[in-house]
Amino acid sequence: MDITATRRHHVQAYIESHKLTLKAFADLIDRSPGQVSAIAGRTPHKGIGNALARHIEKCLQLPKYYLDQPTGLDNASIVAPMANRLPVIGQASAGKLMENIETYDADEYVIAPGPTGPEAFALRIEGISMEPKFQEGDKIVIDPDLEWKSGDFVFAIRIADNTGTFKQLRSEGEECFLCAINPSFEPRYTRMDGEWRVVGKARWRVEDL
User: Fold this and answer.
1) Same-domain pairing of 26 and 91
2) Rounded distance between C-alpha atoms, residue 84 and residue 118, angstroms
3) Four-residue CA torsion sign, 55, 57, 63, 64
4) Which has the closest alpha carbon to 91: 192, 180, 170, 177?
5) Same domain for 89 and 75?
6) For residues 107 and 88, what is the distance between their CA atoms, to the nearest angstrom?
7) Pair 124, 205: CB distance under 8 Å
8) Would you state the torsion angle of the CA atoms of residues 99, 103, 109, 111, taken in this order, to the nearest 10 degrees?
9) CATH number where 94 lies
10) What does the alpha-carbon distance between residue 153 and residue 168 come to, in Å, rounded to a whole number?
11) Helix (H) or strand (E) holding 178
12) Residues in contact with 181: Cβ distance below 8 Å, sequence separation at least 6, in sequence order
C-alpha cells in the first residue's frame, strides 16, 4: 500500500470508528467538507500531502507521522488506538533517562490508552505535592511530542542536575511557574527560569496491567 492509500485508509478508518460525518471531521481539522470529501469521501480524488497529514495529526492529537504508518491497517487495529508499551519511570530518575528513553530497560511497563510519540513514558508519581488530583503511585503518561500551555500538567527537569518534578504549569504575564496543586505543600510555586525546562505534557492516567 503506497503512502497516498495508507494516509487515506487511516483517515477513513478514523471517521468510521468515531462515527463522524464528513462535516464533523472537517470541523475537527478546520477544513471544508468539500476538501475532506476529496481526500476521504466515497469517491476520493485527491491525495493527502505532507503538510495536510501533519496538520490532521496535530488536530486529532495523534503522534507525528501516524498517518504514514503502513503497519496494522486492518479495520480492528485502526478502530482501537494503537497500543504502545511504555516504560514506567520514577520522578527521581526520569530526568536522567530522557536521553536514552528508547533503549531504557524498565522493570515495569504499561499500555498507553492511545497513540503516543516515540519518547513517551509513564511517570510514577512520588510525594504529595499534587494531591488530591494525583496520588503517590499513580502512573501518568508523559508525551514530549505534545504542545503544552498554561494550565497543563507537565513533567519538567532542572537542567543542572536532571532533577524531575511533576507540576501544573501556570503563567502570570510573561512569567511561568511550576505549581503544586496541594495548597499545604511548600514551596507551592517554582519560577520557570533558565534552570528548568518542560520535558512533556501529561496525557493520561493508566492502571496496572
Assistant:
1) no
2) 9
3) negative
4) 180
5) no
6) 8
7) no
8) 90
9) 2.10.109.10
10) 4
11) strand 175-179
12) 129, 130, 131, 133, 168
